[in-house]
Each structure stands twice: as C-alpha cells, then as structure tokens.
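Exercise 3.2. Students should predict the tertiary structure of the chain below and write it as structure tokens, then compare their answer with the key that follows.

Predict this chain's 3D structure.
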Amino acid sequence: MLAAADSVVYSGACVGALISVSRQVAELFVLRRMPESGVEFVHFLPDVPMAPQPVKVQEPIRFGEDFELDLAARRLSRGNRVLKVERIPLEIMVLLIEHWGETVPRDEIVARVWGRGAFLDTDNSIRGAIRKIRQVLKDDPETPRFIQTVTGRGYRFIAPVVLSEEGHSVDAPKAEASIGAAGPPGFVSQPESHLQIHSLGRVDQEQERTAGQSLDRDTARQGRRPARIWLFVGVTSLTVVCILSLIATWGWRASRTPAVFQRKTVLAVLPFDNLSRDPDQEFFSEGLTQDIVAQAGKLNPSQLMVVAHRSVAKYKGSSLSAKEIGKELNADYLVQGSVRRRSGRVRVTVELIQAQDQTDIWTESYDRELKDVLAVQDSIVRSIASQIHIALTEQQEKRLATPQQLRPAAYEAYLKGRYYWNKRTGESMQKAEQYFQQAVDNDSTYAAAYSGLADCNSGLTWHGFKSPAEALPKAYAAARKALEINPESAEAHASLGLAMSHRWNWNGAEAEFRRALQLDPQYANAHHWYGDYLSIRGRHDEALAEAKRALELDPLNLMISTWVGLRYYLAHDYPHAIEQNRDSVELDPNFAAAHLLLGEDYVQAGLRNEGVDELSKAADLSGDSPTYRAQVAVALAVAGRNREALGIAHELEAISRKRYVSAYGLAQIYAALNEKEDTFKWLQAAYDERAVWMGYLAVDPIFDRYRSDRRFQELLRRIGLL
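Answer key:
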C-alpha cells in the first residue's frame, strides 16, 4: 500500500506522463467552446488538422419551423415573438442542444443547473423543467419532435438544428450513438455525436480547400492513421492505469479521513399515518412527525442531514416505493410510521428503511399513555441514531434518556398551534396563537409553546393583522420565557432574534440568530429570519446565502421560498426575484405572500399591469390584510392610475380609525404618488407606532427617490440603520 506522500508523487508522475503524451495526440481532436455556457465540443477527427484558434459561436441557432435560440442573450423566440421561458428550463434546453443527438444524463443536468451535490428534489425539478420546455415548444412527449425521454437515463434533443447566419444544418439523429468502426471507445461517428455545425467547429476555408487537392497528401494521411490509432490506444491505456491507481490510493486515504469530511447521512421522516379514523386528529399525527424531525435534526449535524417536514409532506399517502422516495429526496434512510390515539392512550408504530434496497432495518411499536408521548419520541430518535450509527454527545444521550413530562392537554394544544401556524394565513395564525396560549396556560414550563406564541405574534404584526404595540411585547416576553425555561433551545433563540429585529435591536437580534444556528445549524427558520435581518442591514450576499440555505433545508416551505425572492427584491435584482416568486406561486397558487412579493417584483421591473393583477390576488387571498391592500395602491400609483390609488389610501385611513392599519403602507402609497409631504407625514407616524416594516426603510426600493432628503436620513439614524 502506498503511503500518503508516495501517492502524491505517483499522482504527479501519472499527470506528467499524460501531459507529455497529450501534445503528441493533440491533432486528433477538435475542441470548440460555446460562449457563456462553458460547454466543450470534442470530436475525433483524424483527417482534419486543428484550426489555429477555437472559434466562438456568435450566431443564434434555429430549429423546428421557426424557433430561434440566441445563446449569448439566453433568449428563445419564434418568428418575431420572444417566448417567456424561465431560467432553469432555458438552461436545460441549452444543455440539450449543446449535446445534440446525445442522451444527457440527469446527473449532468443537475451538475450544470444546480451544481454537484445539490440537495433538493432534482428529479421532480428536472421533470417540471422539461415539461415547461415542451409546453413552450408545443412538443408531445409521446411523439416528440424536439425532446426525447430516454427512459431511466435522461433526455435527448432530436430536432434538426441550423445556425441562423450561415444556414448549416444537422439532420435529426436516428439512434443512440454507438461504438464501432466509426471511432475508438468513447467517441461516436458523425453526425450522431455532439452538435457539429461548421460554424461551431469551423475549419479554416483554406484548410477545406486544400484538404483534397493532393492525392499524395491523402495517401500520406491514410498511412498515418494506424499509428495515430495505436497512439490513441496507448494514451487510453495509460490513462486507465493511472486512474485505477489513483482510485485505489484515494480510497485508502478516504478510509482514514476523519468523519467530518465524509458525506452526511440523509434521513427523511415521512408523514405518519393517522389510524384514528378521525380527520380531526390529523393534527396529532402531523405534530408527532414534526417533533421527531426536529429531535432527529439536532442529533449530530456533522454526520446527519434530516429532510425538513414540509419537504416530505407531499408523500403522505403516496404510492411511491421507498426506493423511489429515497431517490427523489436524496435520502439514505426513511422513517415510516402510524399513530392511533384512543381513550387517553397512543399507539405508535415506527419502521426504519434503507432506501436504496428497501431493507427494513428496525421496527418497533409503542403503546403508552398520552402523557408519555415525549418519552416515545425520544426513544424513537435514540433508536434511529443507534441503527444508522450516528454518534451522540453525552449531553444528547442524557437528554434523550430523561424526556420532559408534559400534561396531555398542553401537548395537544401545542400540536394544534403548530398545525395552524404552518398554514400562514391571518385566520390560521390567530387560531395558532390561541392554541399556544392554551398550551402555556396548561403547562407553564412548556418552552416550545412559548416559542410558538412568540412566532405567532411576530407573524401577525408583520402581515398587518396586529399592531406592534399589541404584538411585539407579547412576542418578546414569550421568547424570553422560552429561553428562561430552556437556554439551549435553538427555536427560542431564533424567536427572540426575530422579536428583537422587529423592535430594531439590531445587535441583539444578530447575536440571537447566531446562537440559534450554533445550537442547531439545520434549523431552517433561523437561517430564514437571519437572512431577512441581513437584507435589512444591506448585507445582500450574506442574506441570499442564508435564504438559500434555509430553502435547501426545507425546499417546499412556501414562506421560505417566497422570502428567497424577497432577498433578491431588496437587493434590486428584479429578474431573479420574479423567477423565484413565480416558482413559489406555482408551488401553491393560493399562497398570498407569494403573490404579494411577485406583484412587488413586477411593479419595480416595470410590468405595471402584471403587478396590479398579482397584488390584487394577494390582497384577496390574505384575509383582508390592510398591509396587502396598500401594495395594490402602490402598484396603481406606479401605473399612473392615481385616482384609484388615492381611493385606497383614503379607504385605509378610514379603516385605521377602527382597527390597526400600518402607517408604513400609507407612506409607501404616497411615495409612489410622489406626494413628498404626505410621504414624510406617514413615515413619521410609522416611526411613532414602531411599524415592523420600517426596518426595511434603508433598502425598500419604493423610497429610492427620497434617500438624499435630510428627513429620510434622520429617520434611518433614529432606527439605527445609519
């Protein structure tokens, strides 16, 4: 066995040998690079000398009857009309065309679009993108003219392609490229290999003209072929030997690499089935699932990644096999279970499955009194950790061995609170607050219920259903109480960070968010809220990184997905904001916040009518939120419909005499109307009432025209944003 140092020397020798030999065989290949995309087209062309310099593609590509793809501008058009294609589907279409006639594997698509090692539901994302491409091209998957699905492998672009400028074309491929007399292993005969249009792999006209002029030259070229082929075989053999040696060496070294550098184990806890035959008990099975997800996520973040509950919720009642679900979630292990609650007792059955071969690793049933349900959860999590070899700290072992005792009424109220909180509507958040309050009334030591109570009040004031004067003291006090009971609760620290951010305590908020992430790096809400804080402070790159991390941990969480778009919006990156929030709307067309952000994106991007439409939908779906209604007026003002905008402003002013209406929303309306004095009148009122959205003042694009005003600068200073 090679020593580590020897392996480096040996690797260097192999690479050096390959480099020296490669110079001798360079004339066997023609290499071309597409602009922007980074793709390389390599052809085995022993008869054609290399062009002195690679030729870059500048001309658009045509295909079908009248489709044209401008690679440099990343724009698809048909005739004189530019077609609307989202970024990811367009990028996949470019990749398929670049590899014209070849099957492009799914993992290559993932690497191109999301990067290798991406943790998301890539198969569904790819299928969705292919579906969108087909919709734009009006392609039928059963009888495809453009994109062919190669079952179990990937996709091929099969339509003839033509360079717009010169009219060179390639016929549609007849079959998969094969290995044989046409060329050595790894290469395919033309035209069935990569897209090969003369303008892409253009040979100098002088070379073309002189290539066939001399019979003697042709004869000499024929004589060189056997030597070149043998040289290619020699290089290939040397390459294989080096690669095998390096694999063996790296394998030996990897076996001695500390665990921190190994790939994390991925666990997905699927929604537990409700066997109580009572739909009203659905909250119980869902809550139990979420608690197990939360507990497992805290075990050992360096070794274990637990898929967030919202991202597995769609598999409730699914007919997919464990192997198929595991593949979609990139999960190594799945937990399946069922819950039956009856007469003060609960029966929980749990099964741990290895996804790849669908092997049952561990199964257990628990029949306990309802008051012992937390002990059941801890026992399940401890057993899972043992079965999949996740190391626990001494503190974790002790905590799992001594679960907290809860009153059944408190636990049931808490689960109902989380159930309604996850719906994120005005009505559901108010119900959630009531249930969390019931939980703490029944058990004053229930830290998680206090944290839920804090989150509800923060959310209700952000969405405009409660005044800051009413909600923020409750949110702050509840988060403080949660930490008093459990100082090691990541949820409590994150809840306190959110409350502090809404109170403009910026240093305190950042400290709490950082502590939450230190305690639980996989707590998606902590990344989510910390990202919002960073946007407020103008640290947009950091904000986007935190938002994307939250979405990676919980890909199907609508609020998190929407707020990734908000990160782009506050950074004034409207194209990416629109793309992100369109995706959020597609996930759930009835989610008000997604329409709200998409509408605001459209307004700032100059798509005024689209902005009015989206914001009107948001207001209708919001449950009559004055905050959402104000954004409709902003869109109308930007569109020049001043009378309608003023009508909404006056309507909101009248409503404010009866219930809370954020003065910040009114300031936004008058700013869009370019009514300067009224803008500052309502901004001062928003400051006086401590309106939550005042935190966005430094980055809100609606106020861009007022940033140099002395009064605006003074407001920023008083809020702590200067």
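Discussion points: The two ends are 62 Å apart (CA to CA). The chain is about 55% helix and 10% strand.
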